[in-house]
Amino acid sequence: MNRFDPAVKTSAPSPDIDATLYEKSGKIYPRQVHGLFATARVAAATVLLGIFYLLPWVQWDGRQAVLFDLPARKFYLFGLTLWPQDFLYLTFLLMLAAYALFFFTALAGRLWCGYACPQTVWTDAFLWVERKVEGTRQQQMKLDQAPMSLRKFRLKATKHAIWIAFSLFTGFMFVAYFTPARELATRLSDFALGPWETFWLFFYGFATYGNAGFMREQVCKYMCPYARFQSVMFDNDTLVISYDARRGDPRGSRRSNTDPKLRGLGDCVNCTLCVQVCPTGIDIRDGLQYECIGCAACIDVCNDVMDKMNYPRGLIRYTTQHELEGGKTHVFRPRILVYGAILIALCTLFAWRLSQRVPVGLDVLHDRNQLYREAAGKIENVYLLKVINKDDATHRYTLQVEGIDGIALAEPGIVIEAASGAVVNVPLAVRAAESALPSSSTPVRFRITAEHDPALSVSAEAKFLGPAK
Question: Is residue 6 situated within a structural domain?
Answer without folding.
Answer: no
